[in-house]
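re: the backbone from monday

yeah here it is again, tokenized this time
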């Protein structure tokens, strides 16, 4: 059972990265961070969190949180014009 949840989490993470890639291309030139955030919430989060309420709370669960933080850093970094070294610290 745990192996199934690990595979499901990996599939969800891959789907979310795919959704994020197309979103990043589409919103890369948008200056409105609120619009970027709403698009992120409507496309990437559902891909990552689909059926998350049925996942057991295992050691793999923090991977989903880490993936979510990585998306946020990718969206925030260009808007802040900060170096990648500082963005990693966020």
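seq for it, each position gets an aa:
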């Amino acid at each position: 059972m745990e192996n199934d949840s690990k595979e499901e989490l990996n599939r969800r993470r891959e789907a979310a990265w795919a959704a994020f890639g197309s979103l990043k291309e589409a919103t890369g030139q948008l200056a409105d961070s609120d619009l970027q955030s709403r698009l992120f919430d409507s496309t990437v989060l559902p891909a990552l969190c689909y059926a998350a309420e049925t996942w057991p709370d295992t050691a793999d669960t923090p991977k989903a949180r880490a993936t979510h933080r990585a998306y946020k850093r990718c969206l925030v970094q260009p808007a802040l014009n900060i170096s990648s070294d500082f963005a990693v610290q966020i």
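Residues 2-89 form one domain. Residues 86-90 have pLDDT under 50 and may be disordered.
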